[in-house]
Amino acid sequence: MDTATFRRELEAWLDANTQELTPPYEGAGTMDEQLAHYSHVKRALYDADFGRYGWPESVNGLGGSPLLRAIVGEEINLRGLADPSPWTMIEVLAPTVIDFARPEIAASLVPPFIRGDEMWCQGFSEPDAGSDLASISCRADKTDGGWVVSGQKIWTSFIQYAQRCVLLVRTGEPGSAHRGITALLVDVDSPGVSYSPIETMHGRHDFAEVHYDEVFVPDERLIGEEDGGWQVAMDILPYERSTTFWHRGALLHRRFSDLVAQMAASGDRSDTAAKALGQAFQSLVAFRCRSRDTQHRLAGGQQLGVETSIDKILITSAELELFEAARDLLGGVVEFDDDLDAAMWRTDYLYSKAAPIYGGTAEIQRNIVARRLLDLGPES
Amino acid sequence: MSELIEADDLALLATGFEAAMAEAPAPGEADQALFDLGWAELLDAASSQGSATAFSALGKTNSAACLLDDVVAQALGTAVSPDTCVVFPSPHQATAPAQRRGDTVVIDGLVSARLERANTAALAVENGDGAVATAVDAALLHVTAAKGVDPGHAYRRLSVEIAADALTPLATSGTWEAAVAAAHSALAHQLLGGARWMLAEARQHAIDRVQFGRAVASFQAIRHKLAESLVLIEGAESVAQGCLHDPDPLLAALAKSLAGQAALTTATHAQQVLAGIGFTAEHQFHRWMKRTLVIDTLFGSASSLPIEIGNRLLSQDSAPRLIQL
Ligand SMILES: Cc1cc2nc3c(=O)[nH]c(=O)nc-3n(C[C@H](O)[C@H](O)[C@H](O)COP(=O)(O)OP(=O)(O)OC[C@H]3O[C@@H](n4cnc5c(N)ncnc54)[C@H](O)[C@@H]3O)c2cc1C
Predict the structure, then answer these.
(1) pLDDT tens-digit readout, B169-218
(2) Which residues of B touch A276 (CB under 8 A)?
(3) Are residues A201 and A215 in the same domain?
(4) Among A14, A199, A291, B246, which has the minimal tally of Cβ within 10 Å of its Cβ?
(5) Is the domain of A168 the same as that of A246?
(6) Whether residue A138 is found in the same domain as residue A202
(7) pTM value?
């Protein structure tokens, strides 16, 4: 289906089902409420087929370009119908699992994930392995019919809602760096998995510390090759920076529009206000135009790679600028007020501070641009 | 918007333009050669693609060819010829450069070196309810002698009052708004062409220059400055490329503003990486840096355009999505 027709039909369907899809809670809601509503929206989209386009038939999708998935998330976020964060996990993890997992595993496990019946999480970071992901130490040792996993992960988002986790484990010697890493798809309810949620500075329990104590993972849950986990992790990154970013960009656009409307209503026509809005908007548009090119390269079957670090830096800057502008222009709302609207601005302002940290820090992105895109040779 | 030219043909044209520009670097000197190479026909056949190609070449070669006159004349719907020049807005502004005051017209703007050769100037006059295009005898316009920061560039201040009856209204198909959009998108390409040149110079210097026993390119502070520059250039480039498919004036203003910001930041970072040698008149860097200062001010700058853009959004109460997948 061509994108314009798809968008028209989707818009008509969303218009007809607005009431059904609008969050039943006011403001941001609790995490439980958000996740429950997110599942509800995903299921409705799936059952109306919109949520199946852009996914291959092998996982019960209806085929078509990944642009269609970008459009669905864009429209949902522009209308504020569901929080984009849990949705991120699908766009980040499902394409790579489809590419690298055994076909029968993908065929049976991915459909409930993209239908919103299940939540998955990403277990990469460890207490001693953040930016230096290749130094992870959570181990998996071979046993009859599978693997035994022991070790610790941290910052695993949404694990308390998740059925499965894409886990990176050390299968090589301790010093084997990226060569000795394997990716496994682990059931979160396996015996030996335990977690304790960590409260974020914006007052939620987005992520958790996770312990794996002799957790058995069967052979068929291997993603990619044994010791081939680094390739799997590298395959995930460009997905994280294409469709997902398009969705988040739409959320940022909506919040920017909210800010413009509030400022227009306030009657503040100072140059200071106009300039802050103009600058925030231009950063958003730079990201959007860049990301559009990236979506089209992905849809055209091109392999995305390190150049998506530019998309990451652009969306991070746009997000930071937008909420700094909101904080400046709204005059104390972020700091002092507690009404629903203020709480949303505060939450978004605080959450924007995570943008230069997750998914590879701002510094790591600049290292990649310098090394791989500008070809500056090794660092000293 | 026409899109008639194949990428290969554009690349060939770009090579021809760059050679002609390099051969005749003085202000306006290359204009005739560019017309001979088919510049006017290119503008006519594919105005945005054509001006993007020519203005990227201007930025890359730092040529002072006066092609902005033709881009604005074409968008205004007036004749494009090496004998016609255009009066541009004052620095940092995008409003029509002339105001009607009773029987006189007050002109405050900029002109290019094309004026010296031109017999006619196209002049947009603010009438109170919009700008109208007029033609005026070029001999009536005198420029100040000041050379400014970049003596090699093509633009000079123009500040005169002339009798209103010296103007001939032009029956044109274009609008001032379209002219501003065409200028914004062309100048964005020029700024980015220059920014890429400065980044390439700084990158090469960082790789070649050894201090403390290693290339300065190995120091993270240097690497991050260059990376920052590339990110800003690529972000602005995507918007400037977007203008080729979408003639929206707001998108063009955003492209110009972003390109100005990218070029100014790249100039700052490149100068720091080049260090001492970059502060000399011997190294070519200063020419590109100064040209960036000049081009940034044309039709609104990276510091004035965001105000205009913000005001436009405020008056609409919302932000348009601009581009679609
Ligand atoms: C909201 C949120 C959600 C997250 N969700 C998940 C998740 O679901 N799953 C998961 O696995 N992880 C998740 N993470 C973790 C995230 O990926 C890590 O925080 C990130 O990789 C950085 O690691 P770190 O926090 O240990 O920082 P460190 O790596 O310890 O970095 C500390 C500082 O040093 C800098 N630094 C490090 N190395 C270099 C270098 N070579 N050059 C220059 N500077 C350097 C960093 O940029 C940073 O400023 C999440 C994080 C956040 C904030």
Answers:
(1) 988 788 999 999 999 999 999 999 999 999 999 999 999 999 999 999 99
(2) 310
(3) yes
(4) A199
(5) no
(6) yes
(7) 0.97
User: Which residues in chain A are contacts of B206 at CB distance < 8 A?
Assistant: 376
Q: Which domain holds residue A13?
A: 3-118
Last residue of a domain, one of A177, A203, A228: A228
Cβ of residue A260 closer than 8 Å to a chain B Cβ: yes
- Residue A130 CA to ligand 1 center (angstroms) comes to 5
Is the model's pLDDT at B247 over the cut of 70? yes
Mutate to test the interface with A, among B205, B220, B231, B256 (most CBs of A within 10 A): B231
User: How far apart are the CA of A202 and the nearest CA of chain B, in angstroms?
Assistant: 27
pLDDT in tens, B42-70: 999 999 999 999 999 999 999 999 999 99
Three state DSSP letters for chain B: CCCCCCHHHHHHHHHHHHHHHHHCCCCCCCHHHHHHCCHHHHHHHCHHHHHHHHHHHHHHHCCCCCCHHHHHHHHHCCCCCCCEEECEECCCCCCCCEEEECCEEEEEEEECHHHHCCCEEEEEEECCCCEEEEEEEHHHCCECCCCCCCCCCCCEEEEEEEEHHHCEECCCCCCHHHHHHHHHHHHHHHHHHHHHHHHHHHHHHHHHCEECCEEHHHCHHHHHHHHHHHHHHHHHHHHHHHHHHCCCHHHHHHHHHHHHHHHHHHHHHHHHHHHHHHHCCCCCHHHHHHHHHHHHHCCCCCCCHHHHHHHHHHHHCCCCCCCCC
Q: What is the pLDDT of residue B2?
A: 46
Q: Which of A126, A240, A319, A321 is catalytic?
A: A240
Residue A369 domain-assigned (yes or no): yes
% of chain B at pLDDT higher than 90:
86
Ligand 1 within 6 A of A350 CB? no
pLDDT above 90 for A124: yes
For residue A129, give the ligand 1 atom closest to its CA. Answer: 26
Residue A264 clears pLDDT 90, i.e. is over it: yes
Q: What pLDDT is recorded for position B173?
A: 80
* Residue of B234, B301, B317 to mutate when probing chain A, most A C-beta within 10 A: B234
Size of interface A-B (CB pairs under 8 A): 151
- Which residue has its alpha carbon closest to ligand 1 atom 23? A130
Residue to mutate (ligand 1; options A357, A371, A372; most atoms within 8 A of CB): A357
Q: Looking at chain A from residue 116 to 155, which residues have their Cβ under 8 Å from any Cβ of chain B?
A: none
Is the ipTM higher than 0.85? The answer is yes
End-of-domain residue from the set A205, A228, A251: A228
Band of residue B3 on the pLDDT scale cut at 50, 70, 90? low
Confidence of residue B160 (pLDDT cuts 50, 70, 90): very high
| A110 lies in the same domain as A141 | no
For this structure, is A307 an active site residue? no
Q: Is the pLDDT of residue B144 over 80?
A: no
Q: Could you tell me which residues come within 8 angstroms of residue A198 by beta carbon, excluding any fewer than 6 positions away?
A: A154, A155, A205, A206, A207, A208, A209
Whether residues A259 and A224 share a domain: the answer is: no
Question: Does a structural domain hold residue A175?
Answer: yes
CATH number at residue A45: 1.10.540.10
Question: Same domain, yes or no, for A148 and A179?
Answer: yes
Mean pLDDT of chain B: 94
Any domain includes A337 = yes
Please check whether residue A233 lies inside any domain of the structure.
no
Kindly report the nearest CA distance between residue B151 and chain A, in angstroms.
31
Do A258 and A304 fall within a single domain?
yes
Counting the structural domains of chain A, the total is 3
Whether residue A160 sits in one domain with residue A129: yes
Q: How close is the nearest chain B Cα to the Cα of A368, in Å?
A: 9
